[in-house]
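Mods, move this if it's the wrong board.
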Amino acid sequence: MVAAGIALAATVTSQSTDLATAPPAAIEANDAAPDRDPETLRLLYSRSVVTLNPHLASGYQDFEAARIVYEPLASYNEAGELVPFLADEIPSLENGGVAADGTSVTWTLRPDITWADGEPFTAADVAFTFKFIRNPVVAAATAQYYDGVKSVEAIDDYTVKVTFATPTPAWSVPFTGQTGLILPRHIFEEFNGPTARDALANLQPVGTGPYQVVGFESGTVVYEPNPSYWGGRPAFKQIELAGGLAPYAAAREVLQAGTADFAHNLQVEAEALSELETDASGHITHLFGSQVERIMLNFSNPFARTEDGERSSPEIPHPYFSDVRVRQALNLAIDRNTIAKELYGASGKPTAQLLVAPANYQSPDISYTYNLAQAKALLDEAGWVDSNGDGLREKDGVPLEVLFQAAVNPVRQKTQAIVSDSLQELGVDVQIARVRMDEFFSGNPEDTGSLNHFYADMQVYSIGNESPDPSTYMGWWTCAKIASQANQWQEPNNARYCNPEYDRLWDEARKELDPARRAELFQQMNELLAQDVAVIPVVHRAMTNAVSDRLTGVEFTPWDASTWAIKDWSPKPAQPEQ
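Not the wrong board. Structure tokens:
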């Protein structure tokens, strides 16, 4: 899965080599790599790791790397079932772990776990992790997943109680999955404040997971087995995680060159990926979860400034996207079927749903159509006409033009081209902007090309809910979550969308304990966003990974990092000679 959701609220800048447009020579460079140790597992990513502290993560690559070292209390498997890690059992109403009124959950921990340095793992570590995450000075990227938590109390060494401020059906969100990884109190306690990013452990972590870090430099992290791991010795004597590779180059190393074992989240054109699969030494996996490639429309004017100098401020509405008819026209001009078929193939399905997983939250009343004639009629109705015959629409002397930005990636640039062709046929002038990937997904306030600054009219990227419970994800569309200069662009509502009715539905849904009623509320929220054209969902994207055929035990889930079960990855046994 793509953890871009964390990039929406992150505060660390990632610096990696962007090879999305690398020349053929750069892509071919690894073909001549010498034979490698079969006991080394090699993992490839498009972005380079910045930190191994998951709560300070700058994006998905940091979670992927940290998840090899750290563990949560539990996580969700592909079927959506909770699987214990540091917890001894999964809390429930039946075993008394989940309070009937939804105000608390009590976890029992495994008693046999130590950190990699030999110190015992206890409930105090869980309680401390909460303090670290919720410390506003730390500005943790994962803080939003703990918004409703009132307190976390270590009842004894192996019992921890999480109390919520209100009845909370999403009791399983805190301390689960990649946003719930537990930190060692004895390591980070002195860094719970303004020095959080100075801790050596951010680069040399001490965890409870199957492997420990022995080297971290130049975008590459090296791991070896954790001798204290509670689950037994893992299969590989070393893991090498490398970042900064273009998706095509990474896929080629796994599928053709055989110089790597795993390539993550391959946003590669369907035709190119199919060619790489021919006579390959690996295979492609497609796992559909919550990720939706969407086009965002800016509800604020990205080119006007407030008296304080702020751009894309809700104080200055967008000159034409404030009219729902213009938004509806653009929605009708998105050729989802062509984008999904030509660019994604088996890894994408056209959709108009923002919330696609779990499936019970989808609304049967949301649909899409590609109709340029109807789109033109809406623009005519809204007063945007071509008055001088130059092929471009204008109104009151203002031309209908948009700046459409995306991170550098061949699939996204072709998406921009397909959308641009349709919009130009409508009479809309489209300017294309390509932003370096690390800047686009950066949480650094200085990176003005980021998706949260949103200094453009339109932008495209992929994201989804991190958990089967979508309350945090859907909360990104509330008025309180608008990204602004005041919050250093750390809030996730970069569209600057605000609708009190939507806020009311979300507030009700996050407290509703009846599953059926809660599903209805999320469907209504999904429908309202579609009616308002608050966002234009385009493709339901699969997590598309390349995996070497020499591996066994590889299991993915849409609700955690791809490395969540890396303890089970191992080489296939050698086949006896015939």
